[in-house]
Amino acid sequence: MKKATTTEAKTKEIVKKHGRDKSGLIAILQDIQEEYNYLPKEALSVVGEQLEVPISRIYEVATFYNTFSLNPRGRYLVEVCAGTACHVQGAFNLKDRLQRDLEIECGQTTKDNMFTLEEVRCLGCCSLAPVVRIGGNIHPYLTQNEIPGILRNYRKQG
Amino acid sequence: MKKISTLDDLKKTGDKGLKSLFPSSVKIVVGMATSGIASGAGEVYEALIAEIKKRKLPYVLTKTGSMGMDFIEPLVDVIEKNKPRLSYGKMTADKVPQLIDQIVKGTIDKIKPIYRVDEEDIIAKREKKQYLKGAVPEYLREIPAMYDIPFYEKQVKIATRNCGIIDPENIEEYIARGGYLAAQKALTSLSPAAIVDDVIKSGLKGRGGGGFPTGVKWQSCVAAKGDIKYVICNGDEGDPGAYMDRSVMEGDPHSVIEGMIIGAYAIGAQEGYIYVRNEYPLAVANLTKAISDARSCGLLGKNIFGTNFNFDIKIGKGAGAFVCGESTALMASLEGKAGEPRAKYVHTVEHGLWDRPTNLNNVETWANVPVILARSGKWFSEIGVPHSTGTKVFSLVGKINNIGLVEVPMGIPLKDIIYDIGGGIPGGKKFKAVQTGGPSGGCIPAKMIDLSVDFDALWEAGSMMGSGGMIVMDEKTCMVDLARYFIEFLAAESCGKCTPCREGVRRMNDILHDICDGRGKVGDVEMLESMAKGIADGSLCALGGSAPNPVLSTIKYFREEYDAHINHKHCPAGVCRALIRYEIAAKKCTGCGVCAKKCPSECISGEKKKAHKINQKKCIKCGICMESCKFNAITVE
Fold it and tell me: For the purposes of burial, counting CB atoms within 10 Å of the CB of B315, is it exposed (0-12), middle (13-18) or buried (19 or more)?
């Protein structure tokens, strides 16, 4: 119960920061996701109440955009770039390798909650293709052989 | 920050900027755009701080955006009084002490600069400013001048004029290079109609993909009825393989802001929005800082340059939806809604954001505006070719030696971009095609290498200018797989509002998957062509309207590859997994066993120091054996 009130209070604070403006919905959801790493159901109801917007519309926006996640994400977000430059340099092999090594499919989170694997459209680092972004760090010219070591390092950092 | 309201204020601020651009002490500048940082510029920067501190040197250290030479990043520039600016490529933290040694001793014996810059061409001010005093010092004569090296020789920088030169967080440096002079001139001495006229005269066309004449768009927005109007900068650079706009937003955010001020004044808007992709955090940070600085200086806000013109800009962050690059979808997103486009017959210049007249242009378009106003529309129209004036920024990526950002005059032969600027194809492989226009564009085959790169010629070739992604492909790129890649992308990014795009693109995706997976049937290509027509004709917005382009252009120029996949179940480029096999060439295999150890499905076996073999039944075709083999013994067929 205590945690619930905190989510409610935090969400109200975020909505207030954006002036309770309906047009700020995307920015509000971005801030909530920044805070919780995903969009908690409770937070979405609070946003709906505060903005006087039906919850269906909140879900419409939350599910339309790729960045939003309705499920908790792992400690590190692993984003495989699927841009054209990365694709022609064999990024699909990296994706498969990550899926095998992490034992999850794209869009899923590892059991230990360390990694969530996702595909991203283009990180705009085409000169370094193929790239994978892990926890905000871009790993350039990545090869399959480097993947186990890199994942080990992140696991070690905890 | 000091208010800037007169030409004199601007000059004084510019003088301060000149002092930091042409300093009297040693200055070291590190290229810290996203790609620079990813290549290790952050470590180089830290190492420089430490080394300068350790030796107690009075050196100044600053950051800049990207000069475009991404293939040799991290880049570090060294500026010393009265000497040419020197650019060092592929810097590492380890090389920093050597570099500092060289500066102290006045040599270049350990690390050679890539090029030198004797004078800076300040295009918006139509003047040149010298680094070098007198003759080039003896020890620097062997270093080529920037515009003598093939990568830069044919480039003309207008939109990216300041990228990689100024510190994007320093408004004084922007002003020193002629920044805000055009806005000052426009607001204080030009009528809105005169500005629109000059932009029409310049022939500037939208750089985001559509290629609509910018001045004409402005004129329609001026004519639209309504007290409240908006200007928008489209920074939702969604085309995969394109990062021109990221580079401008990160490296020269004020050029976009200044362009928007001029546009807003011409149209009669008081509010502007910059819609930036969520995937570009550094662009958001630099734009936010630039807007806040411009506001503190009075360049945004009320009574700009002492006139009665008020204007301010807000940033809207995207949330990862390709379709939001489409203008009506982008506006829906700014209103806090799902980014679904609407029919085009309702023009956004009349009914745009919140149903009010709105003028939307792309980042690169806005960045061109200040220079057009500073130098005149006529000057701009003389660059390029008659119906495609000015320059275009391209991100030259894929299978090419000199990967990077290039700005070239319109009408340059494709050959010059690929071979002179791009330095050709790596590994002695054969150039096969170049893909332009992103998922809405098409492929231009090697036989059309002499093609003039302009709006009309690209369109006639079955591709389009698009936003500027130029992805180079060699013989190891499968064109069917590429078509599948784009269609899969579009199937996932279709917003789902209209049926031709939602269902049609998905069906095309199914057929292309079948062809790549060895299930292609005779008649599939004809089916794709017929569906393409239906989707193009029936879709609501440009996403669906242009979605079939990558398929149609690959069928047009590479039909034989489709036939090989369908009739012979063979992928000539060796890419489509279901149709390839990895083999070990017994003659080249040394039996080192590395591949066998790395193989995730344990399908490689053999005795030590003897040629190994792949068990094709167990092979999952991940390609790691090929990646791991040091003897090039593994081939793909």
Answer: middle
Among the four given CATH numbers 3.10.50.40, 2.60.40.3880, 3.30.2420.10, 3.10.20.600, the one describing domain B385-474: 3.10.20.600
| Residue B279 touches chain A, beta carbons under 8 Å | yes
Query: What's the rounded mean pLDDT across residues B555-582?
Result: 96
Closest Cα in chain B, distance from residue A100 (Å): 9
Residues A84 and A29 in one domain: no
Residue B420: CB atoms within 10 Å: 16
Residue A70 in domain: no
pLDDT of B578 reads: 94
Question: What mean pLDDT value characterizes chain B?
Answer: 95
For residue B212, pLDDT beyond 60 = yes
For the question of an ipTM over 0.85, the answer is yes
A-B C-beta contacts closer than 8 Å:
147
Residue A127 is predicted with a pLDDT of 87
**20-59 in chain A: CB under 8 A from chain B:** 21-27, 29-30, 57
A100, closest residue in chain B (CA to CA):
B600
Assess A102–B contact: CB distance below 8 Å, yes or no. Answer: no
> Rounded to whole angstroms, how far apart are CA atoms B93 and B87?
16
Q: Residue B314 is inside which H or E element, if any?
A: strand B312-317
Shortest CA gap A117–chain B (Å) = 16
CATH number at residue A113: 3.40.30.10
Tell which B residues from 13 to 42 touch A, by Cβ distance under 8 Å.
34-35, 37-39
Residues forming beta bridges with residue A139, ordered by sequence position: A132
Q: Which residues of A are less than 8 Å from B403 in CB distance?
A: 85, 126-127
Distance between CA atoms of residues B313 and B300, nearest Å: 8
The CA distance from B606 to B623, in Å, is 18
Query: Is B440 near chain A, with CB under 8 Å?
Result: no
Q: Are A48 and A92 in contact (CB under 8 A)?
A: no
Same domain, residue pair A112 and A50: no
Asked whether residue B352 carries a pLDDT value surpassing 90, the answer given is yes
For B394, other C-beta atoms within 10 Å of its C-beta total 27
Q: In this structure, which topology does domain B479-567 adopt according to CATH?
A: de novo design (two linked rop proteins) (1.20.1440)
Specify whether A59 is located in the same domain as A80.
no
Options 2.60.40.10, 3.30.70.20, 2.130.10.10, 3.40.920.10; CATH for B581-636 is 3.30.70.20
Domain annotation covers residue A71: no
Identify the pLDDT of residue A5. 63
Residue B423 sits at the chain A interface (C-beta within 8 Å): no
Q: By C-alpha distance, which of A26, A144, A149 is closest to B318?
A: A26
A25 → chain B, closest CA residue: B336
Report domain B171-380's class. Answer: alpha beta
User: What pTM was estimated for this model as a whole?
Assistant: 0.94
Q: Where are the domains of chain B?
A: 15-64+76-113+115-148, 171-380, 385-474, 479-567, 581-636
Residues of B with Cβ-Cβ distance to A93 under 8 angstroms: 622-624
Question: What chain B residue is nearest to A62 in terms of C-alpha separation?
Answer: B338
The beta-strand segments (E) located in B123-253 are 127-130, 230-235
Instruction: List the domain range (segments joined by +) for residue A29.
Output: 2-64
**A94 within some domain:** yes
Is the CB of B240 less than 8 angstroms away from the CB of A121? yes
